[in-house]
Amino acid sequence: MSEDSVPAADDIAAVRARHLRWLWGWDKEPDPGHWDFRAIQGSHYDWDLDTLRLYDDMDPEHRTVRSARAYQEIWEPTFNSLRSAVHRLEDRPEIVRSGDLAVSRLVFIARLTVAEGSVVDIRTHNTLIWQRLGDDWKIVGDHTSSRRIPADEADLLLTTLPGARDDTSLKEDDHGNR
Question: Which end of the chain has fewer surrounding CB within 10 Å, N or C?
Answer without folding.
Answer: N
